[in-house]
Design brief:
alpha+beta, globular, 4 helices
Length: 187
């Protein structure tokens, strides 16, 4: 497990070049939102993606709003916001939005592949890590939140800010990690 965490910390420290230009503080928090304002979230995320400085890998894709909702139960819908692979590997990541019956965004899930290399060390999707960092910055979490999550997850780690709770879950048996973002008042 220590080998696993050490490798992740080393890899993640090289992927931390996202700057926070659009964050949750930019949202109108005075209205006590019952859901994340989706258009502002997309704008903030895409701006943060554009700020990534990584010359080894292409930037993760922007989120583009669409109307492809899949009903998962009586009043919940899911929409795949981004799904892509790294440029030179089979590693990939997925970002999904969970919406209420009025199609308001209420939860975000990011799932990032992290297969093992020839030395049995987990190596996450580079684009997936960049996208995860952009999500964290967009929702006003500290830049080192992902590093803290990998250091402290057993197998889960949660952190909250003024509006949101993020839970990082390490799933070595599935060779992936997930980030789940929820509004604090929805928990």
């Amino acid at each position: 497990m220590k080998k696993y965490l050490l490798a992740l910390i080393i890899i993640l420290s090289g992927c931390s070049n996202v700057t926070n230009t659009e964050s949750a503080d930019a949202y109108d928090n005075k209205n006590n939102f019952n859901a994340i304002p989706f258009e502002q979230f997309i704008q903030g995320y895409n701006t943060n993606i554009d700020q990534i400085h990584d010359y080894k890998e292409k930037h993760p894709s922007h989120i583009v709003a669409d109307d492809h909702f899949k009903k998962v139960n009586k009043n919940r819908y899911i929409n795949t916001l981004v799904k892509e692979s790294d440029y030179d590997s089979d590693k990939s990541y997925l970002i999904e939005g969970i919406f209420d019956e009025n199609k308001n965004l209420i939860e975000i899930k990011a799932k990032v592949d992290m297969p093992t290399d020839k030395h049995s060390i987990f190596v996450p999707s580079r684009k997936g890590v960049q996208a995860a960092r952009a999500l964290l910055k967009t929702l006003d979490f500290d830049e080192d939140t992902l590093d803290h999550a990998f250091e402290n997850a057993n197998p889960d780690y949660s952190e909250t800010n003024n509006l949101y709770k993020v839970t990082c879950s390490l799933m070595p048996e599935e060779k992936k990690f997930t980030l789940t973002f929820q509004l604090k008042d929805e928990i």
